[in-house]
Amino acid sequence: METIGFIGAGNLGTPIVTNLLQAGYKVKLYNRTREKAQPLEALGAELVSSPAAAAVPGGIVMSLVADDKAVESVAGDALMQALGHGGVHVSMSTISPDTSRTLAAHHQKLGVTYVAAPVFARPEAAAAKIGNAVISGPADAKERIKPLLQAGFAKNIFDLGEDVGSANVLKLMGNFMIAGAIEMMAEAFALAEKNGVDSKVAYEMLTTTLFAAPIFRGYGAMVVDRKYVGNPAFSAALGLKDMNLVLQTATRSHTPMPLAQLVQSRLMTVVARDVKEADWTALAMGALEDAGLKG
């Protein structure tokens, strides 16, 4: 089987690499904190000491790291030279579309193809391979990476065309809509509690009828049960980073997004208060506290 390079063994990278190994791929894995990748070494991954060491000439390297700066730091000239002509870098991180376009142009100068393929999945969905991928970039490279995305996490793949920034825009749209849904549910369930309605009954009724969708079922349960602190699958800090990117992209395209400003403020409050191990669903605390309820 093909040898794949992978950079990033975080909450999402770990189940994706696990699935790739189980599918028979050989994986050369780099993680900034080596100890966090050791469970994957036990499953058969080869741990390497640098991003460039994860590359096979003319091969594919997938990266899934925290933010724009992290992508820029791993996707340097050393990695490009190690991949060489015919190599493909698949950036699966949630980053600015402008950063993707800048990286793609630099990759092209060095003979490497850049594809944006941000992940729509929480870790449990990635592990079950029921996540969604959105991809943008050169057509040949996208066809080449689709089997890896399917083996790693994706039930569905949506192609956004050749502008590499397009997939990043859609990823930011999706994360904004999730955050907006969390805020909406927090306000609605606060209304229920303030008026003597059992919020758990309201949750069951609404999320099995009018709002029968994974986002409302999964995140709604976390909001109702106040289970948004402790071992976060997606931290409040990362959620704030994404809302900052949403508003940055909106500003550059002259797109008013008042709800995005609200959820950004909610997340900023959680981060400012240094709420330990806060999932981004902790933004719901704002609506509950505004209503005089314990967040």
Automatic annotation (TrEMBL):
**Which molecular-function annotations from GO does this UniProt entry contain?**
NAD binding; NADP binding; oxidoreductase activity
Q: Which residues form the active site?
A: K171
Q: Which InterPro entries does the record cross-reference, listed alphabetically?
A: 6-PGluconate_DH-like_C_sf, 6PGD_dom2, 6PGDH_NADP-bd, HIBADH-like_NADP-bd, HIBADH-related, HIBADH-related_NP60_sf, NAD(P)-bd_dom_sf
Superkingdom of origin? Bacteria
Alphabetical UniProt keywords: NAD, Oxidoreductase
PANTHER family reported in the protein's UniProt record: CYTOKINE-LIKE NUCLEAR FACTOR N-PAC, OXIDOREDUCTASE GLYR1-RELATED
Protein name as annotated: 3-hydroxyisobutyrate dehydrogenase
- Organism classification: Bacteria, Pseudomonadati, Bacteroidota, Chitinophagia, Chitinophagales
